[in-house]
Each structure stands twice: as C-alpha cells, then as structure tokens.
Amino acid sequence: MHELVIFDCDGVLVDSEVISNEVLARMLTREGLPTTLPEARRDYQGLLLTDVRTRAEAKLGRLLPPGWLAEYEHERAEAFRRELKAVAGAAETVRRVKAAGLKVCVASQGALAKTRLTLGLAGLRELFPPDALFSAQDVSRPKPDPALFQHAAATMKTEPSACAVIEDTASGIMAAVAAGMRAIGYAADSDERALRDADAEIIRSLDELPERLGLP
User: Fold this and answer.
1) Would you state the CATH architecture of domain 4-16+85-212?
2) CA distance 121 to 169
3) Residue ranges of domains in the chain
4) pLDDT, tens digit, 9 for 90 and up, residues 28-76
5) pTM higher than 0.70 for the full model?
6) How far apart (Å, rounded) are the C-alpha atoms in residues 108 and 128?
7) 4-16+85-212 with 17-83: one CATH topology?
8) Which regions in the chain score pLDDT beneath 70?
9) What whole-number distance in Å separates Cα of residue 9 and Cα of residue 166?
10) Where are the beta strands (DSSP E) in the chain?
11) Which partner for 168 in 3, 11, 175, 203 could form a disulfide, CB atoms 3.0-4.6 Å apart?
C-alpha cells in the first residue's frame, strides 16, 4: 500500500521545537515583546521564519532590527549544538521502514541547511539519501499548502496515494491531506486535538509507526 514515508523534521525526527522556541522567546523578550515558551510555541511554531518575523513585528508594533533573523538563526544553531537530540525511536523507526523496502525522505518547513545541521547533530543524516531532503523554500507556498509534499513525492517518483506523511503540526497534517496522502500525527509533544481536527491518525511514539503502516 505504501511506497514512500515522508517525515517532517522538527519535532518528529529531531527534538528541536523546545530549543528553537526557547531561543525565540528569549530574543523577543529582549526586544520588548515579553514571550514565554508556551506562547512562542502557540504563536510561531511551524511558521516560516519570515512569517515569524512578520507576526512578531505586528505584535511589537514596530520592525525588528536589521539582521534580527540572522542573529536568531545563529543563536538557535549554537543551542542546537549544545542540546539537540534525536526524538526517541527515530533512528530505529526509519531503519525499520527502509528494511521493509519503503523509500524515506524528509520534508520540512525549514531551510535545507537547518535540516542537514539538525539531522547531522542527531546522528540521523546518513539514514536519508542526499537527494531526499526537501524544504518549503523549494516551492512557492509552504504548509498547509500541499506543494511541498507534492514536490517531494514527484521527486521520489511516487504517487501521492502511496505516500504516508508523519507530522507533528496541524498545518503539516492539512498539507498531507490536501496532497491526497495518508496523514499520521505524532502527538508525543504536540496538540493532539489540533492534529485530530486536521484529520490525522494519531501515534504517541515513533515505535508505533511500523505497525501502523503494516510493516513487519
């Protein structure tokens, strides 16, 4: 039934969401927009960085300083190098999917440089072919538009109906559903209600995925 499993990166393969949003909350607070970690995750998680900046500037009532996004990316990368780990079960799950004969790829809202960095730091980079990493920067519209998943499937020479997508955000699930793909919501550290409302099947551990896909 399945030929390709498309993994989101942040929050699905690498435990990066708390780190990213801690840095974001700290930097926004420093700019005069007091922001807690839960508020950062609620208001900005899953957005393109340019949209994060636009939304923050609207709340702040002024423009952020020139170079603020570059500073954020630098501080985030340093935090990743200190703290980032793979999500529990990620490596074994990807290996089991591949051992069953399915193709795997990563399709992330983030830039390819960030995906390569975080997968490398987490020890997962070698599990994915060099041409099997995709970014919303590759397409004209990010999630929840289906363009990124459609692009990934086309590049991997797989029909959408033979794809399963593993996502931890409602926008990612909506993109998978709109692309005509099976949408599985990883809810270990995400809003399960939002995932269900977006029509996701729910798993709470990556260890559940092979059985859910009907793999040996």
Assistant:
1) 3-Layer(aba) Sandwich (3.40)
2) 22
3) 4-16+85-212, 17-83
4) 999 999 999 999 999 999 889 999 999 999 999 999 999 999 999 999 9
5) yes
6) 14
7) no
8) none
9) 9
10) 4-7, 103-108, 133-135, 163-167, 182-186, 201-203
11) 11
CATH of 17-83, one of 2.40.40.20, 1.10.150.240, 1.10.10.10, 1.10.150.120: 1.10.150.240
Distance CA 109, CA 46 (A): 7
Q: Which residues have C-beta within 8 Å of that of residue 74, sequence separation ≥ 6?
A: none
Question: Cβ-count burial of 37 within 10 angstroms (0-12 exposed, 13-18 middle, 19+ buried)?
Answer: middle
Strands, sheet with 103-108, edge to edge from the N-terminal-most edge strand:
133-135, 103-108, 4-7, 163-167, 182-186, 201-203
Q: Give 10's DSSP letter.
A: B
Whether the CB-CB separation of 209 and 184 falls below 8 Å is answered with: yes
Q: Give the separation between CA 72 and CA 49, rounded to whole angstroms.
A: 10
Residue with tokens 């990563």: 106
